[in-house]
Amino acid sequence: MALEWEQVIVHAQDPQALGKWWAEALGWVVVHSSDDEFEIRPAPDRLPGLEFVRLAEPKKAKSRLHLDFRPDDQEAEVARLLAHGARRVDIGQGEQSWVVLADPEGNEFCILRRRSR
């Protein structure tokens, strides 16, 4: 039996706003939009995607699952995402080589350093 990874579900108070934020941040395309769901993918036929699903209650604690991204230039990418509306957060990580940010609804994600070649 084989499994195909379809998407990651992100609960959001405003799925359209948060989904659009992530689509712009990642340069992904919108493949589905309704009042309660907003799905984006790297390309229309490429998986996995991110699906933002309405959940009325706000985020209450540190996320148990988060995304890691590895850009070519960590400093430039952090600056770009901060200008796009992300914010730095401290989740108890201490001094590390990665930077922890949060999207507009408080979902944490990490920007890693460039991979050593």
Task: Describe this entry's structure for a reader.
This protein is α/β, with parallel strands linked by helices. 19% of the residues lie in helices and 30% in strands. It has helices at residues 15-26, 74-83, and strands at residues 7-12, 29-33, 37-41, 49-54, 67-69, 87-88, 99-102, 108-111. The chain has a 4-stranded mixed beta sheet with strand order 1-4-3-2, covered by helices on one side. The protein has a 4-stranded mixed beta sheet with strand order 5-8-7-6, with helices on one face. Strand 7 (99-102) and strand 8 (108-111) form a beta hairpin. The termini are far apart. It comes from Streptomyces thermocarboxydovorans. Residues 4-114 form the VOC domain. InterPro entries: Glyas_Bleomycin-R_OHBP_Dase, Glyoxalase_6, VOC_core. It holds the Pfam family Glyoxalase_6.
Condensed summary:
With 117 residues, the chain is α/β, with parallel strands linked by helices.
* N to C succession of SSEs: EHEEEEHEEE
Name the beta content range. Answer: 25-35%
Reported by name, the CATH topology of the largest domain is: 2,3-Dihydroxybiphenyl 1,2-Dioxygenase, domain 1
Query: How many angstroms does the end-to-end distance come to?
Result: 35 Å
Question: What's the architecture of the largest domain, going by CATH?
Answer: Roll
- CATH domain class of the largest domain: Alpha Beta
Helix content: 10-25%
Q: What is the CATH superfamily classification of the largest domain?
A: 2,3-Dihydroxybiphenyl 1,2-Dioxygenase, domain 1
Average residue-wise pLDDT: 93
What's the Cα radius of gyration?
15 Å
Number of strands: 8
User: What is the domain total for the residues?
Assistant: 2
Q: How are the strands ordered across the major sheet?
A: 1-4-3-2
Structural class of the secondary structure composition? Answer: alpha/beta
Task: Please state the overall shape, judged from the principal axes of the Cα atoms.
Answer: globular
- Catalogue the unreliable spans: none
Multimeric state? single chain
**Main sheet summary:** 4 strands, mixed
